[in-house]
Amino acid sequence: MTEIPLISDPNGIILPVLVVPGASRGEIMGPHGAAIRMRVAAAPEKGRANREAGKLLEAFFGTAVMLVAGATSRRKRFLLEGMDAATVQRRIREEWG
To answer: How far apart are alpha carbons 35 and 17 in whole angstroms?
Structure first.
């Protein structure tokens, strides 16, 4: 598996995410190219899909997250607060090999 390119930030790690809205249920699907692909049930209206994506990431990584780029795009960047790159990559490998 190719490692996801992560960006270091003084407050944690920035993770690239590809969000597909309007799915039957929300789930993190795993690595997809240079990002994590996820589906959310919420429509891309008034930030609903972004909020759902953030909640799924918070549950998966066990930390607070914040959308830092891509509010109106399918390609987004979320800050995983207080995490380091090695921990994020290890968690991804544990789940998807």
So the answer is: 5
Between CA 94 and CA 9 the distance in angstroms is 23
Distance set, CA 58 to CA 54, 64, 86 (Å): 6, 6, 17
DSSP alpha helix (H) spans, the chain: 48-61, 85-96
Whole-prediction pTM: 0.94
pLDDT in tens, 19-52: 999 899 999 999 999 999 999 999 999 999 999 9
Distance CA 7, CA 79 (A): 9
In this structure, the dihedral spanned by the alpha carbons of residues 94, 29, 34 and 21, taken in order and rounded to 10 degrees, is -150
Rounded CA-CA distance 24/74 in Å is: 17
